[in-house]
Automatic annotation (TrEMBL):
RNA polymerase sigma factor 54 core-binding domain location: 155-348
Protein's UniProt keywords contain DNA-binding: yes
Record's compositionally biased regions (Acidic residues): 46-86, 121-134
Gene name of the encoded protein: rpoN
Keywords, comma-separated and alphabetical: DNA-binding, DNA-directed RNA polymerase, Nucleotidyltransferase, Sigma factor, Transcription, Transcription regulation, Transferase
Record-given protein name: RNA polymerase factor sigma-54
Residue stretches spanning the membrane: none
Region of interest called Disordered, as start-end residue ranges on this chain: 36-158
Homology family: Belongs to the sigma-54 factor family.
Keyword Transcription attributed: yes
Pfam family for this entry, one: Sigma54_DBD
Domain RNA polymerase sigma factor 54 DNA-binding: 370-528
């Protein structure tokens, strides 16, 4: 039996503007520039503000009519705009709120925001959307211009290790079949320079992808050729092979021979630093063992990262904030690329002047202006979101600087105070999630280096004095204690716990072990040296 029920619900939904702000807030500076360029390509009503162009427009307005105020004229246009479209139907308003982003076509553009729109294939918008008016910022969005390259020089990242290996393969004396095998091997190299894929699987790949039947011995023969390429140790199948390939290129003196014996016969003992067992098996004196191990420690365990730019693209860290100390007065600014000057295109504002002065306002013209109105609204929302992002970033960073003033004055990690996301959220009267979005992917440039914002957040450790100490401070002291220890008899976690307790830090052994692992410091046995 069918039944009709009436329910009343209260729900909250984010508006398109709020969603846009959240997405812009969490991206770093490097990605923000790309995001702005994408928005400018999609929305022709949005462009970068160029001071020279603005001055020229102001001079043109003054020369056209001295009695008219340009600002007042612009305000009148906005008022006319609101009056013309305040009576639009609900479906039109809903479409404008959804921020549609259709392709902009100067001619034969059919509207999508009205259900009963007439056929307007004859509508010519060339007076409003000609390429001359928007070519300037389109060129800026397509790629870096001369001025952009001058302002932000970047290192040359055109070459990669993969390209270098392929070039060396072409110079090797290989036939067509062997070169195909070599290309497959090079393509199977991981980011750290190893080939971890089984050679039989590579043979299957060649059979399926290139219809080339090869045997494992054939692949091994070509692999030996690839392993002679630069950098040394490339295309190894495991760590011992990688180190042995590098030792083969060294002068074959006594130390090198002993190092090869250690890697070949006692690699497991070497990885666990069981030096007495190595001496017993290889009959080495203390000095001989020490010299051989020093040779091994100078080798590169990850040759894939030693090429021109590795197997991947080099990443450059671009700080979001710049903090300077002027005689005790902090000056916090956003990165210039993080604060772009955007504006609504004057060409599109001029369209409404034309529409307002037109004697005949037919349906086709209204539909064209409705489309432009949507783009103008989208541009204004985007500019507001950028400004709101800048304000939120500065408020958050200012609060961090206020809480960590001692660190920013001296740069001493021990001066960091315990600070969590909630502390900043309460100071700036914002939600913790907003502070988290700011801190996750942003960094600040100081006089002591570039730090990620997450670096300044740490939990508190109770002390004998009753005050909480930052976990960063405890880690700094832990690192200092391990750095001063005797390498012949390293300190265990139990001893480190007692030494920290003696300094007034109430910390357990498991916490010491956790902090040690976070600092990438091995256990005492693996820190032992001869």
């Amino acid at each position: 039996m069918q039944r009709l029920d009436l329910k009343q619900l209260l729900s909250q939904k984010l508006s398109p503007q709020q969603i846009q702000f959240i997405k812009l807030l969490q991206i770093p500076t490097a990605e923000l520039e790309t995001r702005i360029k994408e928005e400018m390509e999609v929305n022709p009503a949005l462009e970068e503000d160029e001071p020279d162009d603005t001055e020229e427009l102001d001079r043109d307005d003054d020369s056209d009519d001295d009695s008219d105020d340009p600002d007042a004229s612009l305000d009148n246009d906005e008022n006319t705009l609101d009056e013309d479209f305040e009576d639009r139907s609900g479906s039109d308003q809903e479409t404008a709120d959804d921020l549609p982003e259709p392709e902009i076509q100067p001619k034969d553009d059919s509207p999508t925001d009205t259900e009963t729109a007439p056929d307007n294939t004859d509508l010519d918008l060339s007076d409003y959307l000609n390429d001359d008016e928007i070519a300037g910022y389109k060129m800026q969005g397509d790629g870096p211009g001369e001025e952009e390259e001058r302002d932000t020089p970047l290192a040359d990242t055109s070459g990669s290790l993969l390209d270098s290996l392929l070039d060396q393969l072409h110079f090797a004396s290989l036939d067509e079949r062997q070169e195909a095998i070599g290309q497959q091997l090079i393509g199977s190299i991981d980011g750290d320079g190893y080939i971890r894929r089984d050679l039989s699987a590579i043979a299957n790949d060649l059979a399926f992808s290139q219809n080339l039947e090869v045997s494992v011995p054939e692949i091994e023969a070509v692999l030996r050729v690839v392993q002679q390429f630069d950098p040394p140790g490339i295309a190894a199948r495991d760590l011992p092979e990688c180190l042995l390939l590098q030792l083969e290129r060294r002068p074959q003196d006594e130390n090198t021979v002993n190092a090869e014996r250690i890697l070949t016969d006692t690699f497991e003992e070497f990885s666990k630093k069981h030096y007495p067992r190595i001496q017993q098996k290889l009959d080495l004196e203390d000095d001989e063992l020490k010299e051989a191990i020093n040779v091994i420690l100078k080798l590169n365990p990850k040759p894939g990262g030693s090429g021109p730019s590795g197997l991947g693209k080099t990443q450059y860290l671009m700080p979001d904030f710049i903090l300077t100390n002027d005689n005790g007065v902090f000056n916090l600014t956003l990165n210039a690329r993080n604060a772009p000057e955007l504006r609504v295109s004057p060409a599109y504002t001029e369209m409404f002047r034309t529409y307002d002065k037109a004697a005949k306002k037919d349906q086709k013209m209204k539909e064209a202006v409705t489309f432009v109105k949507q783009k103008l609204d989208s541009a204004k929302w985007f500019i507001d979101a950028i400004r709101q992002r800048q304000n939120t970033l500065l408020r958050t960073m200012n609060a961090i600087v206020e809480l960590q003033t001692e660190f920013f004055i001296e740069g001493d990690e021990g001066k960091l105070r315990p600070m969590i996301l909630k502390d900043i959220a309460l100071r700036i009267s914002m939600d913790i999630s907003t502070v988290s979005r700011v801190a996750n992917s942003k960094s600040i440039q100081t006089e002591f280096g570039i730090y990620p914002l997450k670096y300044f957040f740490s939990e508190g450790i109770a002390t004998d004095s009753g005050e909480d100490a930052s976990s960063r401070e405890v880690k700094s002291i832990l690192k200092e204690l391990i750095g001063k220890e005797s390498k012949e008899r390293p300190l265990s976690d139990d001893k480190l716990e007692k030494m920290l307790n003696a300094r007034g830090y109430n910390i357990a052994r498991r916490t010491v072990a956790k902090y040690r692992e976070q600092l990438n410091i091995p256990v005492a046995r693996l820190r032992k040296e001869l």
